[in-house]
Design a protein that fits this description.
Length: 303
């Protein structure tokens, strides 16, 4: 994806006006030539103030953020975040990945585990948009973990063009095709067959990538696709203001080369994305989304 910057400049040049006099006389009578009054110069035109360039939305990176993922926490994945009350979270502002005119979103992420499963709670402040007939008019999210140490935050790429891989990443990509309160994911939906990473029922897919143009469902010989998730929203009506709640789980160790592997006492790196259905008249599109990754990876330590 390319960043675009637009600078506008405006200048006005002042004008300057001048005038000259005339003289005359006749016969034997001397006459003093009277000099015509000097024409007063027109006031200089004041230059218009320079037009201020539109502010660029890209933030100044503050460096890696850190998040503790405590162990021994019992979580039920049901879209109710009450059982997360004792877990500290990381508050952030998700920033547009391009300079298009759509808004950042405040969000919070929490991570915990019970020794067997990892749990993620991702909440986003935005109105409720869900359309059973069109996934692009419903909200969507991405949760990204490093598989290889040193993987770039742009889906594994680290160069400016986001095309040169520095390692692989594990992506949990959730497009909301099933309604609120339903469990989505390969463990309960239409997984299996030749493409097990593709959740054909609810579209909570287990994917991996090495750069922005190399992404696939996790369907290798070692594929283990038991992601599970439930989403809810605090608003009762369409377009109601409130908070999205995305609650997810997966085994800490899957034995799958296309998955990040987690262990107590270890660490991993996390990045988040959100697609807002209000970003265009036809809903969201791939390039129009907000991310945490402009500030780099979030370092997660498992207790």
């Amino acid at each position: 994806m390319r960043f675009r910057r637009i600078l506008v400049a405006l200048a006005v040049l002042p004008l300057l006006a001048t005038a000259c006099g005339d003289d005359g006389g006749d016969g034997d009578v001397s006459a003093t030539t009277t000099e015509a009054p000097a024409t007063t110069a027109a006031p200089a035109t004041t230059a218009a103030p320079a037009t201020t360039a539109a502010p660029v939305k890209t933030p100044t990176p503050d460096g890696p953020a850190a998040l503790d993922a405590p162990g021994g926490v019992m979580i039920t994945v049901d879209g109710d975040d009450a059982d997360w009350a004792g877990v500290d979270g990381l508050d952030m502002t998700l920033i547009p990945i391009t300079d298009e005119d759509f808004e950042p979103h405040d969000a919070t992420v929490k991570v915990a585990h019970d020794g067997d499963n990892v749990y993620v709670l991702f909440t986003v402040e935005d109105d409720l948009n869900w359309d059973v007939a069109d996934k692009h008019k419903s909200g969507a999210i991405g949760v990204q973990w490093t598989i290889d140490s040193g993987a770039g935050v742009a889906m594994g790429a680290a160069d400016d063009d986001r095309l040169v891989s520095s390692g692989a990443v594990d992506i949990w990509h959730w497009e909301l095709e099933c309604p609120t309160g339903d469990t989505s994911g390969g463990s309960v939906s239409d997984a299996g067959g030749k493409d097990p990473g593709n959740d054909g029922g609810c579209n909570f897919d287990d994917e991996y990538a090495s750069d922005t143009e190399t992404r696939a469902d996790d369907d290798s010989a070692s594929a283990e696709n038991s992601l599970a998730g439930v989403w809810t929203h605090s608003a009762a009506a369409q377009d109601g203001d409130g908070t999205w709640i995305f609650e997810m789980s997966r085994p800490m160790q899957t034995g799958d080369e296309g998955d990040a592997q987690f262990e107590a006492g270890g660490s991993s790196q996390l990045a988040l994305a959100y697609w807002d259905a209000d970003s265009g008249p036809d809903g969201w599109s791939d390039e129009y989304h907000v991310v945490s990754s402009l500030d780099g990876w979030i370092d997660v330590t498992f207790g």
